[in-house]
Prior knowledge:
424 residues, Adenylosuccinate Synthetase, subunit A, domain 2, 20 strands, binds magnesium ion
Amino acid sequence: MPNIIIVGTQWGDEGKGKLIDILSQKSDYIVRFQGGNNAGHTVIVDGKQFIFHIIPSGILHKSKICVIANGVVVDPEVLLREIKGLNNKGIDIKGRLKISTLCHIIFPYHKILDKLRERKRAQKIGTTGRGIGPCYADKISRCGIRMIDLIRPEVFRSKLEDNIKEKNSIFRNVYNHAGFPFKSVFKDYLRYAAELRPYVSNTVDLLNRAIDDGKSLLFEGAQGVYLDIDFGTYPYVTSSSTIAGGVFPGSGVSPLVIDKVVGVAKSYTTRVGQGPFPSEFNPKFSDFIRKKGNEFGATTGRPRRCGWFDVLMVKEAVRINRISELALMKLDVLDSLKKIKVCTAYKYKGKVFKEYPHDPEVIKNGSCIWREYPGWSDPTCSILKYSGLPKNARNYIKILQDLVCAEIFMVSVGSSRKQVIYLD
Ligand code: IMP
Ligand code: MG
């Protein structure tokens, strides 16, 4: 098996969890390289639902090694809860979960700051409130605390003291918030450190040895290209590099070891949180598709905004990531629609944009130029073969494939592992 990167090509929630679950069967290592517990991957196995926020969903396959690499920001309390949840469901993770010594740690002040900043903002981002942005900000400002600090009490004490002193002053003077007592944070985090200690190791060494030994690695992206800190709809983005390129600083492997990048796109588009959304449905149709597709955030439970497939976005995601193969998810949600629209260009001030413009003015104020295709009435959820799909559904898949310039290799028609159709 080759070394593969999986990326979301829209605003996250494309169904990466399910694809990762399928592809993990053929990989030896499954690696998260960015984001934190803002992510939510839902996997359904034998009717049982699992939601993962930090631990790679590959953990459900016995004998796979799952790595939380250095690019991930870790909330130890949430991670420990997730570990316990898996233990309670009888899933043995001993020796299979590896956490990088170099991960940055999320503290209570990050979570509160995330919420306070959001409250103060005129233009809200709609963050998940998990402290992700403030934790990455500390990493870049070089005052972050890493896993390797956390497990060394004296180093940890001094770094936490410095941080709490600075943060408390900001909390009191800018946000009129009482701040945090050093003692209780220190005590809680020492306990987390002791519990996490057995999982912590040098994952840079681990991954590079695995590559030398010919093992196959699957890098699972969280969020999607349009939440990327650089290429997303800034500032309505998350604080990490969600594109394939994020793998390298996020895990310590070389670009030269990657064999392919697989993209994941929903058959329509969704977005949680604020920010522009050119192909968004009207509220009534949005409600209809949200119910049909169960479009509620796996992390915050917020209703997802829904819209038609946006070709410009996915085509640009294909280009930036050099995606050779695309998985098209939730096709069944479009069953029984009379007509299906696709956005193929934007129009702004009389100018037509056929390529994604990376210009917030155009994305926010432009309008969509649509193409319309006939829908299909037969349900697709129990179809196993491409040839069994309704003609118009096959037509829709072929059209999208041509428009976004990537081969669609798989179509998903339901939430279970079995509801997938492979195209040859
Ligand atoms: P943050 O990552 O919590 O800072 O949130 C920034 C933006 O990214 C908000 O619009 C969130 O709703 C969105 N976001 C973050 N993680 C995910 C995800 O896993 N799926 C979908 N949206 C996400
Ligand atoms: Mg999600």
